[in-house]
């Protein structure tokens, strides 16, 4: 089973290089509301997830899981499940009461994972995602 770590600057840099193929901005770790976890096995980075705890105008907070990825060689071994539940537990401990994420409609492995830990499809009807360049 992988070890799940809250990253330091070096671990963040390694995870970003592994999964995003670029250099990390390690000041990200200082951003309020940031949640990030890295899975390792024998010092090899096997997965990661990151997102935010977002305050709401009603005084509650919710989580947004922006990205969860597992190395191809470690898929279907529970790494994604451990990362997801660790992210959710940390958010719950910080006071969040809900979590949301988006994934591709045809991303069956991810959807199966999210369903298996109690996720449900949004009830507001069909949705679409928009991106804006600022």
Task: Explain what the structure shows.
GO terms for molecular function: acyltransferase activity, transferring groups other than amino-acyl groups. This is Acetyltransferase (GNAT) family protein. InterPro entries: Acyl_CoA_acyltransferase (IPR016181), GNAT_dom (IPR000182). It is built from 3 helices and 5 strands. The protein is an alpha+beta fold. Helix 2 links the parallel strand 4 and strand 5. The radius of gyration is 15 Å and the shape is globular.
Give the key terms.
134 residues, 5-stranded mixed beta sheet, Acetyltransferase (GNAT) family protein, GNAT_dom, alpha+beta, Aminopeptidase, 3 helices
Brief rundown of the structure:
The protein contains 3 helices and 5 strands; from the N terminus they run E-H-E-E-E-H-E-H.
The assigned CATH architecture is: 3-Layer(aba) Sandwich
Number of domains: 1
Profile the largest sheet.
5 strands, mixed
If helices are DSSP runs of H or I spanning 4 or more residues, what is the number of helices? 3
Secondary-structure-based class equals alpha+beta
Report the CATH topology name: Aminopeptidase
Strand content: 25-35%
Q: Could you tell me the radius of gyration in angstroms?
A: 15 Å
Helices and strands, in order, run as EHEEEHEH
Estimate the global geometry from the Cα principal axes: globular
CATH level-4 homologous superfamily: Gcn5-related N-acetyltransferase (GNAT)
Q: Regions with pLDDT < 50 over 5+ consecutive residues?
A: none
- Estimate percent helicity: 25-40%
Question: What CATH first level would be assigned?
Answer: Alpha Beta
